[in-house]
Structures are given as C-alpha cells and as structure tokens.
Amino acid sequence: MVIIALDVGERRIGVAVSDPSGTLATPHGIIERRSRSQDFATIAELVRRLGAQRVIVGLPISLDGTIGPQARRVMRYAQALARALSVPIEMVDERYSTALAQALLSEAGRRTRAQLDAAAAAVILQEYLDHRT
Asked: Which of 83, 99, 107, 86 lies closest to 7, judged by CA?
C-alpha cells in the first residue's frame, strides 16, 4: 500500500512516499504553496500518479502536548483536503520530525530548506509506518 505523507508549512509542503509494501519512507520533494485549490489539485494528482491509498498529514502539536495556532491551521487544511481527495487522510503527531530531519541531513552534509521539508515528511511517514498495527 503506497502512502503519501505531507509536512504542511506556511510556504511549502514537504512530501514523502512509502514503498509499495508500506515499509520504507522516502523523501519525494516539496510543493510550493500557492492557494488551497492549487495545493489540493497538485496533491490529488500526486495521489493519482503514485497510486497512493492513504495520505498522512503531520500535526504540529506543541512540545507540551497542546494544540496551538499552527496545529489548528494544519487541522483545518487537512479537513478541507480530505473533502478534495478520494483516499483517507490521517493526522499524526509530528512533534520531533523537523529536528530529527535536521540531524539526519546534517550527518549527510545536506541542508537546503526543500530537502529539510521533504526529509521531515519522510520522518513523519516512517514513524507512522513503524507504529501502525
């Protein structure tokens, strides 16, 4: 089952994709945000092209576990996206994804913002894949 993960930011959306077995997450790239309708059309096309059966959206919960303004924005975005897609959407806690992605990219000697956004999406997706039952 191919799964796409999204790390929704203010300017970009990091994208990661699982392998067909649903075991390994790989950074796929970014979507430059324009408008919701354009974002949703791009995501829908990606879902169609990759044959994805589920979309995971990282929820930026505060470190203390509360839902702050950014998390509320992402929740509204994901709810609207769910109405635009034909596959299920699931939100997952992404509290440490960017920090982990930064550490991984730092070790690899790479750190562009686009790479970081895609790597954060891959961290979110890998966590999901590793912990789903």
From this structure: 99
